[in-house]
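Follow-up to my post from last week.
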Amino acid sequence: MTERYQIAELLVDMDTFGRTKAQAQHYRYDADGEADIVVKSNASSLKTEQPHLSDDDCEYISTGSNFYRQLLKFDGMVLHSSAVVVDGYAYLFTAHSGTGKSTHTKLWCKEFADKGAYILNDDKPALRLMDDGVFYAYGTPWSGKATYSPNRKVPLGGVCLLHRGAENKIRPCTAKEAIFFLLTQTSRPIGQMGNDKILTLLDKLLTKVPVWHLECNMEPEAAHVSYNAMSMKERNE
Amino acid sequence: MELKKGFIMRQVAGEYVVVNAGANVDLNGVITLNATAAALWTRLENPATMEELTQTLLAEFEVDEATAAQAAASFVEMLKERDLLA
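User reply:
Got it. Predicted complex:
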C-alpha cells in the first residue's frame, strides 16, 4: 500500500515493506495534494544482480537510491556520511566505507553529551539548499542498520573528509580534494541534466559550507580536535 | 578533431571539472583542468584543427606562439591517451 511521508521537507509517496517501512514510520505524514516525489523501487532487478542480498536489503537500497536521485530536482543531494548535531549545527563526516565515520561521531556524542550532541543520520543524510540560501541536513529513513534518524532539519555547519591516522590533525580541504571526494560519496546522476545539477549544487556547497580534511585515531582527543576546528558556535562568538 | 559528446565541463569552487554524463568512454571519475586546458576543452566541443587550438590560446592568454602550439599539442596528446576524442 502506498503511504505518504514527509522527508527532507518534501511530500513523498512510497509503497514499501520490512526495514524500510519500519525506519520510515516516524516520517509518516497526512497531507493532501500531489506528492513531490513518488519513490519507485527496483528491488527485484537489484536482487537479480546481487543475489546474495536479502529482499529486505534490496528494497532498502533501491528505495534509497531512487529517493536521492529524485532529490536533485529539489536542490538536494545525499552525502554518504555520519551526521552529528551539536550546538544547533549538523557536522557531516564522510569517508570510504569501513574508515570509521560512525566511530568518530559516536565519540562526539560521548564527549559533547553536555552540549546535547546526537546523531541526525548515521549513513545517508539528505542535504538541501533552501530558499533562504542556507544548506540544511535532514534525517531520512535511510540511516544504516537499525539506526534511529530523527525527522529533523538542521543547518549544515561543516563537512569533513575523514581519514585514519596515528595522530589527530585537521586542516581546511582544498577545492580539488573536496570535489573528487564528494563526487564519490554522493549518488551520481545519469545524463546531462542531472550531472549539470549536481555540479551546480556542489559549487554552491563548497562556496557556502566549510569543508575539512581530518586524520584521526579513535581516542577521545580526536573528537576535540575536529570540534575545535569545525565548531560554528566558537566561530560565531 | 573534436571531443566525444556527453561530457560536462563546469567551474566548481574555482576549479574546472569534467564529468562523464553519458559519453562512450571508460571515465567514471572526474578530470580537473587548469585554465589553459579548459579553454582548449571548450574549443574542442566543436571541431577544431591544431592551428585553431593554438590561436585560441594566443587570443585568451599572454603566451608566444611556440608555447601555445606546444601546450595545444600536449593537451591533444592527453585527450588521445584517454580516448576522449570522437
